[in-house]
Amino acid sequence: MDARVFVNEFNIPPPTTETSEDVMRFLKDFEIAAKGRNIENEGRNIENEVNVRLQKQQILNVASQFRQRERTLEDTPPRWFQMWVNDENGFSGLFNRIGRMETRMDRMETKMDRMEARIDRIANVQRRSLGFPIDVVPFLNGEEPTEKLPQIRSVEDIDLLTKDQCTSYLNGYGIRFNPNETIKLKERLRDVVGLMSAYDLAYQFSGFP
Question: Which residues belong to any copy of the Mug135-like C-terminal domain (predicted)?
């Protein structure tokens, strides 16, 4: 085994044994570390932008306080201040942009959760091609299925689910389905978690109990 293949900037230790399962473990750790770095960089850029805008706001607040103290005889704030407050690039605009940034961060988090689910599914397809059981795939919100739902490691696990359990899984993965379906529900769930080996695809599901 060529150890140079496993040298990485994340200090992830290489496989300790020359087995496919150990190599798949290294691959999953490597994917998670790379994804984490991307999220960290994006979050740091957004945080820096917010901090700069907030500091500008604080400086402008100080300037406004000094200006108001200098013009204590006037009943209304100076014109420049009124214009700044109403300016789309001023105070109100700042909070509008912060709101948009928060929306962007929420969308980014949703995209990362979806990306993680796709990565887990691809890893499971690879694991099944090597004859290993699959890992649990988190829902789109980033959370793993609750303890009330049986874990899915094989097509046999899916076949033992009740209809409520099966639809709970599909809803968690954001999969559309017809509530009148039976076998098709199990097939949809099989595909979304990465059970795609020849054995899995040939497996004949039974109806719900």
Answer: 127-195
pLDDT at position 67 is: 72
Instruction: Note whether 157 and 151 are within 8 A (CB).
Output: yes
What pLDDT was estimated at residue 62? 67
pLDDT at 171: 94
Cβ count within 10 A of residue 152: 27
35 and 124 fall within a common domain = yes
User: How many Å from the N-terminal Cα to the C-terminal Cα in the chain?
Assistant: 49
Please, which contacts does 144-148 make with residues 24 or more away whose CB atoms are closer than 8 Å?
A: 145/169, 145/172
How many of the other CB atoms lie within 10 Å of CB of 76?
A: 8
pTM: 0.50
Q: Which residues of the chain have pLDDT under 50?
A: none
Task: Give per-residue burial for 13-51: e unless 16+ CB within 10 Å, then b.
Answer: eebeeeeeeebbebebeeeeeeeeeeeeeeeeeeeeebe
- Residue 101 to residue 46: CA distance in whole angstroms: 8
Residue 86 resides in a domain: yes
Domain encompassing residue 179: 134-209
> Total domain count for the chain?
2
Q: Burial of 83 by CB count in 10 Å (0-12 exposed, 13-18 middle, 19+ buried)?
A: exposed
Q: Encoding tokens for residue 55?
A: 């500091």
pLDDT value of residue 44: 73
Residue 106 and residue 193 share a domain: no
Same domain? For 151 and 77 the reply is no
Report d(CA 126, CA 190) in Å as an integer: 15
